[in-house]
User: Fold this.
Amino acid sequence: MRNRQQFTSASRSLPNTLNPLFLFKGKGSRYDNQMIHRPRNSPILHSFRRLTALLLALGLCLSASGYAQTPEIPVGKPSFEKWLSAVAEEAKIRGLDEVVVGNALKGIEPISRIIELDRRQPEFTQTFWAYIDGRVSETRLKKGRELLRKHKTLMTRIENTHGVQGRFLVAFWGLETNFGQFLGGFPVIDALATLAYDDRRSDFFRAELFDALQILEDGHIDRESMVGSWAGAMGQPQFMPSTFARYAIDEDGNGQKNIWSSLPDVFGSAANYLSRLGWDNRYTWGREVSLPKGFDLDLAELKTKKALSEWQDIGVRRVDGRDLPVADITGSVVVPAGHRGPAFLVYQNFEAILNWNRSLLYAISVGHLADRLVGLGPMQSARHQERPLTREQVTVLQEHLNRLGHDAGVPDGQAGPQTRGAVKAFQKAAGLPADGYPDGSVFEALSSAVEPRESNP
Ligand SMILES: [Ca+2]
Assistant:
């Protein structure tokens, strides 16, 4: 999802809010399609599916006894058919072609699976290492290196035109759709109509639907080939229709912007988008660093930008101990897994990645994958044992924070920026390392602060 302006209302409880690791609650956002595009044919997966099927069956029994399966249409809400006619009417007013719109909307029905996917909430937050290992796997590295070699000429041309290094384009490609292998398979118009009819973020998806209809009218793709993720992210770079409208380009010059099957269009569009987000190919994304003993964790925030020479003076070094590079740029230190985890010094291009996808871990995955594709080594920090919190625990943590006067907002089980800020305030007050990272140890410290153990009975 690549459209920061439109996202305020859409950004809550998205599937890839891998709390506490995502960044901006009200800024851009996107839907992670990893859950949908699983590799097929793995025996483990097969067992997993059977287990899932069993659990689903159990869930269905439970829900049949206690809960309605399909939410009823609330009083006053039009039927889907009526709603669809209103959409067609509005499309006409917006100047879209009546025949194109009529054909695109003909006979569609809401897809209940999409609502299920939209409502799912992971029980556990994902740990840093699990996230990175899952995305920067050996298989993906091997495939990515092959593809980077294979498409070298195209990548060089695109870098010369748009100023984005090929290794980053291949990294995005790998993370978004496993190099074009998993486009999602949902019909985009139907998916967007489903989500636009649903009440949760109807305005956002309704606007996306009109953009999608425009893409059809402009002939970039036909309706049948217009597939995407359950949330309407399209083609090999997984652009939302509004992102497509602004940034997709016809790199191969055949008159169509085809991000589904033309690789020049895929990479050209991704590079054009990144370039418009401020990408600068004179630099990389950032790097893993080591922090000096006693480093002031208050400085570890994206918004704290300092010249590389200042970080050097503070004692920040490359992770292997060497000096930081000498360059006239600023960077920020981030500790995505708290003070026990690895630290990174990130540059302007990192923020461009965060505009593509607001998850800090996603952005680090892109950078790390790109590095590994050109032969740089794995991360070097020791792998600390993380104890991820459950959603329930995060809710309790938020309640505790609120009780202690550190405003964590309405407890919702999602450790967004406000919760992280409140955690930081609590840590400072309690004399703990103030990394704002809600893990098991913070949870325990908070629990004892709220319910002090009885001293000597
Ligand atoms: Ca084209």
Q: What stands out?
A: The mean pLDDT is 86. The two ends are 57 Å apart (CA to CA).
